[in-house]
Amino acid sequence: MGEDLFYAVLVGASLGFLFDFFRLPRLVFNDRFFFDFLFWIISGVVVFCYYLIFNSGSIRIINFILIFIGFLLYTFTLGYVTKSIEIKLAKKIKFWLKKVKNRIKSFKKVLQSLYNIYYNIVARVKNAFHKKGKGDGYDEGSDNENDNKNKKEDFF
Question: Rounded to two decimals, what is the model's pTM?
Answer without folding.
Answer: 0.64
